[in-house]
Design a protein that fits this description.
With 74 residues, the protein is an all-alpha fold. It contains 2 helices and no strands. It starts with 9 loop residues before the first helix and ends in an 8-residue tail after the last helix.
C-alpha cells in the first residue's frame, strides 16, 4: 500500500481513495465468505479484519484531505 502525501494533487488523492475503497470492499467480501465456512485457524480472519480497519483509517484521512470540514476547528 502506497503512503499518501498531503502534497499530492487532488487527482492522485482521488485515485488512491478509489483504490482503497475497492480494496476495503473486497476485504469485506472475503471476510464474509470466510465466516460462512470458518477456517480452522482464525488468524487469517483477524488479519483481514485488521487490514480492513487500517484501510478504513486511510480512507478517512484521504477524505479529510480532499474535503476538509471548515467547521471542524471552529
Amino acid at each position: 500500500m502506497e503512503p499518501t502525501d498531503a502534497t499530492d494533487p487532488p487527482e492522485v488523492l482521488q485515485a488512491r481513495l478509489v483504490e482503497l475503497r475497492t480494496e476495503h470492499r473486497d476485504l469485506d467480501e472475503a471476510i464474509s465468505r470466510l465466516l460462512l465456512t470458518p477456517p480452522e485457524d482464525q488468524l487469517v480472519v483477524r488479519r483481514l479484519k485488521k487490514r480492513k480497519l487500517l484501510i478504513k483509517d486511510r480512507i478517512s484521512v484521504l477524505e479529510r484531505m480532499l474535503d476538509p470540514d471548515p467547521d471542524e476547528y471552529a
